[in-house]
Amino acid sequence: MFEIVFLGTSASAPSVRRGLSAQILKHDEYRFLIDCGEGTQRQILQSGLGFKHLNHILITHGHLDHILGLGGLLSTFSRWETIDDLNIYAGKWALERIHDLLYGVVLRGANAPMSIQLHELSPGVFFEADDFNISTFPVYHRGADCFGFLFEEKSRRPFLAEKAEALGVPMGPQRRDLVNGQAITLPDGTHISPEDVLGELKPGVRFVYIGDTGRTEDLVEHCLNADGLVIESTYLEEEAGMAREFSHLTARQAAELAVRAGVKQLILTHISRRYREKDVLAEARAVFPDAIVARDFDAFQIKQR
To answer: Is the pTM for the entire model greater than 0.85?
Structure first.
């Protein structure tokens, strides 16, 4: 299961109720900050999440409304020393702007109190943990090197506790060994294999995050059967021409992508302050009835449905 907490859901400029793009994706002990618009550090404080364990920052693209908050965040880290290392993942063009911001403006020759690593993204898996990985794929938007992210739990076979109990497998390391695919022998000599206590292989949760993008036809394969999709919805269909001009989506286009890809849960963000939330929701729900428009500080669990 993944959990996403929205810190900023506005498009291009903040509004009274919406900050600029930023969200935290949580999985077990891991936390990933996705984009870091101006004011993100204040939103982190107001959310109650705090700064600990925010070692990984994923940047969809290098536009200022998605990266300017990195300056303030680094300044805060420099004062409080809450982390030992900071990893920022982005495309080449975005990393160049981020480097200028962090080293040319914030640090200006001073040493950062932690190790800062700038990782250039390319399509494919770039982060792997024991039970999930993160891959990236290109999206079409103004400027170079724009990316979406796929968070995917690894397939697993569920442990059938009832069967283990019936076979006399005690709680503890032996059950862990069986889950890890290792056979065990009980004190009475009974041999038990993983096949005896594991169920059928089940795919893990798939969650897709897409920031700014101007088209959807090349995104279906990446969103296919996703348990959750977060995607921008900057415009309404009444201004579809403007959406094309600035390489953004309408609420209807986002919903149509979710339908074509068989997405289970659709959450819209990057909402222009020119529209009322209920109008964005109505346009999306005419196509995808369970669509949701995220608000700042909303939290959603992404799990199999």
So the answer is: yes
